[in-house]
Amino acid sequence: MTDIAAIEIPRVEGLGIELILPATIKLTGMITKNGTNPDLAGFFRTVHGDAISRGLREVFVDVSRLTFVNSSAIRLFIDWASWIKNDKAPPYILRFVTSRRFTWQQTAFAALTSLMKDVLVVERVD
Amino acid sequence: MKPIDPNSRASSGRIPVAPDTSSSRPSSGRIPVAPDTSGRPSSGRIPVAQEAPGLRTDAGASGGHATPVRSSEPRILARGPGTRLAARPLDVVRLIFGEAPVEPSVVSITSRAHDDVLEYTHAFVAAYAKRRFLSRAVEPLSLAAYELLSNALGYASISSQVVLQLHESPVGVAVRVTNDTGPARIDMLCAQLDRLGKSAEATFVDEVRRSVSGGGGRPALGLARVVHEAKVGLEVYVVANQVTVIGRVNS
């Protein structure tokens, strides 16, 4: 079993990643660079595995200060939710913490929630 | 300011940023809009588009020879039997077979088609937008510049150049991206614009759904974001294998 605090955080230019116990990932800044997605995808996959191994009921992903993402990054969030949804019994709920200040968060998570509301919850901080 | 040689730009490894000097027209002080639809004789001959392979013009669909398509007659082409969808002025996306209007630009960035240019150009546009425009224009402009440039880089012919320009006016700003591409891409672009023209939101959700299901094919999530998320209308001009996409943002 891994510990969320022991998970290696990838270095992605322009993006801040913070792991907060017990089950929160905070993303800040921007995701703009093509080619970084495999690193981020691997990181999300590791967190996903860690959440299952620790029997977490929820994982929080705070994107409220993530000001800009490219479409590839949106697909990463989609992939993560899909891993949960594709499990026979969804192991945990993915809870995105968003801000209404950024349009991409409203549109992307509205669409994602409509497709996967059983595994995904969207909260607003403002 | 003297024009910059594109080749020297590419070899310098820098993204050149320079006011566009290609147009001798004085700035009109307004955002350039779609070509004149008044029916008046235009100032010079309207460029004649070559019919792209895989596409059909109205003339082609009716069995005749392809006739020049006036750029003052924007239209969205759909594949399949016959063509349709004469575009209206307020269409959110318009595909026009003809040259894009000549517009005085305030920023012109030219680069070889390479991914590396994307994040730096985006960073520049975002910073520029923050300095120049009200906050409500920054996010749409930033997104439109990124996704349109990303599309151009993704589909541009190898070794071709990609040009991103910004055009300002008292009411807004336009981002304009030009690149060479192949007929298959133009064909696909037509299909994507057709879908976006019907419903940008539905197309956006479809693209998300396609990602959820791991669907194949080249996605159009970026374009869908520009129209649905940023509320940026798109005009797409096609001449032979050159595509120019213009997105306009109110500031």
Would you kindly provide a written description of the structure presented here, covering whatever features stand out?
- The complex is a heterodimer of chains A (126) and B (251).
- Helices cover 36% and strands 29% of the residues of chain A.
- In chain A, helix 1 runs parallel beside helix 2.
- Chain A has a five-stranded mixed beta sheet, covered by helices on one side.
- Chain A has helices at residues 37-53, 71-85, 103-115; strands at 15-20, 24-31, 58-69, 93-98, 120-124.
- The termini of chain A are far apart.
- Chain A has 126 residues and is α/β, with parallel strands linked by helices.
- Chain A has one domain (4-124): Transcription Regulator spoIIAA (2-Layer Sandwich), CATH 3.30.750.24.
- Chain A has three helices and five strands, in the order E-E-H-E-H-E-H-E.
- Chain B is α+β, with helices and mostly antiparallel strands.
- Chain B has a single domain (46-251), classed as Heat Shock Protein 90.
- Chain B contains seven helices and six strands.
- Chain B has a six-stranded mixed beta sheet.
- In chain B, strand 3 (161-169) and strand 4 form a beta hairpin.
- In chain B, helix 3 packs antiparallel against helix 4 (135-155), helix 4 (135-155) runs antiparallel to helix 7 (221-229) and helix 5 packs across helix 6.
- The longest helix of chain B has 21 residues, at 135-155.
- Chain B is globular.
- The two termini of chain B are 28 Å apart.
- The relative contact order of chain B is 0.17.
- The chains are: A alpha/beta (126), B alpha+beta (251).
- Chain A binds chain B through residues 13-14, 32-35, 68, 70-71, 74-75, 78-79, 81-82, 85, 102-104, 107-108, 111-112, 114-116, and chain B through 115, 118-119, 122-123, 126, 139-140, 142-143, 146-147, 150, 204-205, 208-209, 211-212, 214, 219, 221-222, 225, 228-230.
